[in-house]
Design brief:
two-stranded antiparallel ribbon; binds 1,4-dihydronicotinamide adenine dinucleotide; Arc Repressor Mutant, subunit A; Rossmann fold; single chain; 2 domains
Length: 207
């Protein structure tokens, strides 16, 4: 079913999850499309349209059962299982990700860390010893890796991508160079700057 849902809708699903988590924290059992829309800065019809993509969840005049909707969205995103992850590039961003324990709590287990810097090789982060990147190719051939988190400098990005592509199922790419997906490997390019630059626009255009 997931394959039929447009990418634009999929990209909105994590936001729905965040909002539904807030409702669950407040022990709210049902929520209307209008209430969801207000939290998301969207419209009730947009919310209904999104949810119609994966079956009719709401009941007219009744709204959505928060827990059911939350479980369904998690299932669609595939968040109801665990993912084996590796991290390549244990510098500033890499270490921030490793040290953010919530990722492992929600099923993203970083199983191995690779870096080129001899000063980092052998150092442990959250109990995982950094391996020399020379072992990366061998490791991903022998282990079934779902996601590689890529945090290497721009100049090293393409050569690392060549090692990873078609061997890991997904690359969460923090390097500034955008990477393309292949038939086997999905890619999400992350640019923290985008949010910062948008913020700056709004600071400068308040009226
Ligand atoms: P950093 O220099 O602190 O860390 C990079 C790490 O990669 C270092 O530990 C280095 O030894 C390692 N490395 C270099 N070549 C490697 C290779 N071939 N294989 C494995 N490890 C290798 O850099 P920082 O600040 O963590 O940034 C990492 C990347 O993220 C850079 O490309 C940077 O431009 C980018 N960046 C992305 C942002 C975003 O929003 N996506 C925001 C800021 C930086």
């Amino acid at each position: 079913m997931g394959n039929d849902i447009s990418k634009v809708v999929i990209k909105r699903l994590p936001r729905y999850l965040r909002v539904l988590e807030l409702f669950m924290e407040r022990e709210v059992e049902r929520v209307s499309s209008k209430e969801l829309a207000i939290k998301l800065g969207s419209t009730a019809s947009q919310v209904r349209q999104d949810f119609n993509c994966f079956g009719d969840f709401g009941q007219h005049g009744y709204g959505y059962k928060v827990k059911d909707l939350y479980a369904k969205i998690k299932e669609i995103l595939g968040l109801n299982k665990k993912y084996s992850c590796i991290l390549v590039g244990a510098g500033n961003i890499g270490q921030a990700i490793i040290n953010y324990s919530k990722f492992s709590n929600i099923g993203f287990d970083i199983e191995a860390i690779f870096d080129i810097n001899p000063k980092l090789v052998g150092v442990s982060f959250r109990g995982i010893e950094v391996c020399d990147v020379e072992n990366l190719n061998d490791y991903i051939q022998k282990n079934d890796i779902d996601i590689a988190i890529l945090c290497v400098p721009e100049i090293q990005t393409l050569q690392t991508y060549e090692i990873l592509k078609n061997k890991v199922r997904g690359i969460w790419n923090f390097a500034t160079v955008d990477l393309n997906p292949t038939d086997y490997t999905s890619v999400e390019n992350v640019h923290l700057n985008d949010g910062l630059f948008t913020l700056v626009y709004f600071i400068n255009n308040r009226n």
